[in-house]
Design a protein that fits this description.
190 residues; 71% helix; mainly alpha
């Protein structure tokens, strides 16, 4: 789906479950990362996005086909999230639920959610052992020596696998020119 293309929403409005599945598959991860910026709880974020899609399908015959599908999706889940936060009494006023998010433009949050989704997809595409080593280093914060000991491999193997991982991630993310951001987000641990 291209977000400028309104056909998918017209198909959904007419009950096309294949179009709905396509929309879900292509947008669900980005929407979850976006909502997580508000909630800081990925399980709740996934639940809210799933609820949004359930509501969308239940009311598919009533939807107005949006002129900007991408904005419609992100604004809809944002509103659902704000409603959730109000019910949880986490926010007291109408507006953004978090002071830090007030200063962050909506577009930046959307781009960050899309980038997080792209990074996670690229990590999932790594070979199994390479991915395991990368996750242990970057997400669990283990040093190369700790990874080598935990997996009963040499430190050189860890270094080599991390090099492979970073090279593949750089290649997968180069079209977004975001590798520098990836390096910043996942600063190297030795």
């Amino acid at each position: 789906m291209t977000f400028s293309d309104r056909e998918i929403f017209e198909k959904i409005k007419n009950g096309d479950d294949a179009a709905f599945s396509q929309l879900f598959d292509e947008t669900y991860p980005s929407l979850c990362f976006f909502v997580n910026k508000y909630l800081s709880d990925m399980d709740k974020s996934r639940s809210l996005v799933q609820e949004f899609f359930v509501d969308l399908w239940i009311n598919h015959s009533k939807i107005n086909v949006p002129h900007t599908p991408k904005s419609y999706l992100f604004n809809s889940v944002k509103n659902k999230t704000i409603d959730f936060l109000r019910k949880e009494k986490r926010i007291g006023t109408v507006g953004e639920p978090d002071e830090n998010l007030e200063s962050t433009p909506f577009r930046d949050l959307v781009e960050e959610a899309e980038l997080n989704n792209r990074i996670n997809q690229s990590i999932q595409e790594l070979p199994e052992k390479c991915r395991e080593i990368f996750v242990l280093c970057r997400f669990e914060g283990l040093k190369y020596a700790e990874i080598a000991q935990k997996l009963d491999i040499s430190i050189k193997t860890v270094e080599m696998q991390m090099g492979i991982a970073l090279k593949k991630l750089r290649k997968n993310l180069s079209d977004y020119q975001m590798f520098n951001l990836l390096v910043f987000v996942f600063s190297k641990k030795n």
